[in-house]
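Thread amino acids onto this structure.
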């Protein structure tokens, strides 16, 4: 039991790569034993069943539009986007054409985030009082005693003290062991947390008595919080305990106790600095203050003024001033005269302003603008409910975004009603809480069928956050989280906990990328461990892309097998199509070399010219199938987060901000809109056969002399015009929705023409264009006939 604290000085994060390697090794062993695992199968956007579901869903939307038009609502009102009022449009909207990196903002200013050390008085560090100590004692008691905080500032002070107690627990425990404290007082062995608390307080007082004026009050408060017995026993052993702590420090050549802590806890008292920091950060609740002008006026009523901007963008914050953040919408910083009094203000009591550390707003701020950036619409989800304040902030950011339908949050568990009550108190109405775990949701769940974006916020080590107390307070005072944050040795139970976290991170990424409707994913942690960050993201992308390639290889093998059976049984192309449920492959007369060169992508993959495809580089794939191409809609890539700050390029620094973010997207984004529906309808042959060769063969087989002349003309026209004209002639010979509308001999039915109502401007242009082309073709045909 000697030198217990030495164990704590090891780097506990060095074990993370080994634990992840063990997870991957076990998975490979299981795959070798059982063959294909469940995670090896993922549905793809090019799957027939998925495309059919999307097609009929979009068709149902079209039917709803048609019903509205039939009811008398003007077309312009039906198809027009209902733009909602946005709190700060300059920050809330961003697209590839409006990002600072696009060149619209050439003279970039410097975006400065105020350093707390510029404002903190060193005399205020660790300035806990008797009330804080006794409240901490109530919380650490088993079972805990009721504890009521006057304001949030007091709550932060109490939990910051508990954080430091847990941080130094191995040193304190070593000192207690050296003097055989628990052997002399065995009844206190089950109450060691509070023994550490009072010993730590005594160490901060240099083992001296309190001021005489406070001794009476100390005795009264200790009796109420059941701390008097522990205090008396520690006080009686104060000389031996002081000597033991001094020996530990001298033996290890440490100038102070902080040098005896493990590397990740030697953070220059960041918690004490965050507690004593006079700067208050948080965000405006847009559901209660719907405009920026109202927010500014609310701060002015309690004596604050908005800080003016300098030309170079560097604006030092002053007392009784506030300034809005340049990256995070709704977010601002201010310096009140007294943080405790500010916590009791109307802004805080009526939930007009929510205090939160900036590190926990960066992820939601980026995620809320990705729908606009990728120009997609649909539902979005957050995989884990890490903090109810972060969830509320995300709801506030999406409040004016017309591109989002539903915001679904998973992982509420048994605290679902508590979280819903908090959202109701803040009047946030656009959040849908779910008690289920995201990793346990079925792939084909109807809840997720319209999800286009995923924000992954899995549990992690939280080793990079600068203000862990903000996380604890936002989680309602989670003492178990405090113990995890101050963990200083990797026990067997700790290794199991880390393994579960890494597995959940990997599974969340895989499941998010396994849903064909998902177009982009933002993965966020507050960890400084690369195993949880970039390494985890790269492994997940490689795994999912490998599974997609394996899926296409399997479909290619099945197609070749059916073709072989068809050739053996003498089936024609039409029968083969019926057997496969897909278009037939290359003609049997082609050589094996041509088949390999033009190998089909999958049953439902589109042409390379249309969707783009590439060969997936994968050393694990057999060389025999290395030529199989995977459509870009079926694979993912990691890209840089777009510049969203109007003042500085790449203003998100993971190390300084304590927030790691990684953006993952499909190599080709699919926008499930009216254009996509028209393309799908065209592929299904609703606009006529799009295969010109097949159509020409049918036309030339006609027996009448008149039809023979007509079928020959496109060949002559081809010498004068491009091949597109020939394709156009063939397509115009077939009935389409447009030709039915224009025809005087066919009565116009509602089901024949309503499809064009999705995009009226495009259809009107297409109509005029086709009309001009048809007139030109008729003139050419007449001219050729006259010459003959």
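Threaded sequence (788 positions):
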């Amino acid at each position: 039991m000697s030198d217990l604290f030495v164990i704590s000085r090891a780097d506990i994060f060095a074990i993370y790569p080994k634990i992840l390697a063990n997870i991957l090794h076990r998975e490979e062993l299981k795959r070798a034993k059982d063959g294909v695992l469940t995670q090896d199968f993922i549905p793809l956007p090019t799957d027939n069943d998925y495309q059919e579901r999307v097609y009929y869903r979009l068709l149902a939307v079209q039917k709803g539009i048609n019903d509205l038009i039939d009811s008398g609502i003007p077309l312009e009102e039906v198809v027009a986007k209902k733009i909602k009022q946005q709190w700060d449009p300059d920050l809330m909207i961003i697209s590839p054409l409006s990002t600072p990196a696009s060149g619209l903002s050439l003279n970039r200013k410097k975006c400065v985030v105020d350093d707390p050390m510029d404002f903190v008085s060193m005399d205020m560090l660790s300035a806990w009082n008797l009330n804080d100590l006794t409240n901490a004692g109530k919380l650490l008691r088993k079972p805990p005693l009721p504890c009521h905080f006057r304001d949030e500032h007091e709550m932060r002070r109490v939990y910051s003290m508990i954080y430091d107690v847990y941080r130094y627990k191995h040193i304190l425990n070593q000192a207690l062991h050296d003097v055989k404290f628990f052997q002399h007082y065995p009844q206190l062995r089950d109450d060691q947390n509070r023994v550490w608390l009072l010993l730590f307080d005594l160490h901060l007082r240099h083992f001296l008595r309190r001021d005489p004026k406070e001794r009476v009050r100390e005795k009264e408060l200790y009796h109420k919080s059941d701390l008097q017995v522990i205090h008396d026993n520690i006080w009686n052993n104060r000389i031996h305990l002081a000597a033991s702590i001094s020996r530990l420090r001298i033996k290890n050549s440490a100038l102070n106790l902080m040098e005896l802590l493990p590397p990740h806890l030697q953070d220059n008292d960041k918690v004490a600095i965050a507690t004593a920091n006079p700067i208050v950060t948080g965000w405006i609740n847009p559901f209660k203050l719907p405009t920026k002008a109202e927010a500014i006026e609310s701060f002015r009523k309690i004596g604050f003024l908005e800080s003016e901007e300098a030309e170079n963008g560097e604006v030092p914050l002053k007392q009784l001033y506030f300034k809005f953040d340049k990256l995070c919408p709704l977010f601002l910083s201010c310096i009140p005269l007294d943080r405790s009094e500010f916590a009791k203000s109307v802004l805080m009591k009526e939930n007009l302003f929510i205090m939160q550390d900036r590190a926990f707003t960066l992820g939601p701020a980026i995620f809320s603008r990705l729908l606009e950036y990728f120009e997609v619409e649909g539902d979005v989800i957050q995989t884990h409910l890490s903090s109810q304040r972060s969830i509320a902030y995300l709801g506030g950011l999406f409040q004016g975004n017309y591109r989002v339908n539903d915001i679904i949050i998973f992982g509420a568990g048994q605290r679902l009603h508590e979280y819903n009550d908090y959202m109701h108190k803040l009047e946030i109405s656009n959040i849908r809480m779910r008690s289920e775990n995201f990793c346990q949701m079925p792939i084909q769940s109807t809840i997720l069928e319209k999800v286009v974006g995923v924000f992954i916020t899995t549990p992690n080590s939280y080793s990079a956050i600068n203000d862990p107390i903000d996380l604890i307070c936002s989680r309602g005072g989670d003492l178990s989280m405090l113990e995890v944050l101050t963990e200083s040795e990797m026990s067997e139970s700790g290794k199991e906990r880390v393994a579960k976290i890494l597995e959940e991170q990997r599974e969340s990424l895989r499941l998010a990328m396994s849903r064909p409707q998902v177009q982009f994913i933002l993965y966020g942690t507050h960890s400084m461990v690369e195993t949880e960050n970039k390494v985890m993201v790269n492994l997940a992308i490689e795994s999912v892309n490998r599974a997609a390639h394996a899926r296409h290889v399997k479909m290619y093998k099945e197609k070749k097998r059916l073709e072989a059976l068809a050739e053996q049984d003498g089936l024609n192309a039409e029968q083969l199509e019926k057997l496969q449920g897909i278009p037939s492959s290359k003609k049997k007369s082609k050589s094996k070399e041509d088949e390999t060169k033009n190998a089909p992508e999958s049953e439902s993959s589109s042409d390379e010219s249309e969707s783009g495809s590439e060969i997936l580089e994968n050393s694990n794939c057999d060389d025999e199938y290395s030529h199989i191409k995977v459509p870009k809609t079926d694979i993912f890539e990691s890209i840089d987060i777009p510049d969203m700050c109007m003042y500085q390029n790449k203003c998100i620094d993971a190390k300084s901000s304590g927030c790691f973010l990684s953006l993952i997207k499909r190599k080709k984004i699919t926008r499930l809109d009216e254009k996509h529906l028209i393309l799908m309808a065209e592929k299904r042959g609703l606009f006529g056969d799009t295969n010109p060769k097949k159509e020409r063969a049918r036309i030339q087989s006609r027996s009448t002399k008149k039809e023979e002349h007509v079928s020959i003309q496109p060949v002559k026209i081809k010498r004068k015009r491009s091949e597109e004209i020939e394709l156009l002639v063939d397509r115009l010979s077939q009935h389409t929705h447009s030709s039915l509308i224009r025809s005087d001999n066919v009565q116009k039915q509602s089901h024949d023409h309503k499809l064009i109502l999705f995009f009226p401007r495009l259809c009107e242009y297409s109509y005029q264009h086709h009309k001009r082309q048809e007139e030109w073709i008729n003139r050419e045909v007449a001219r050729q006939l006259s010459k003959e």
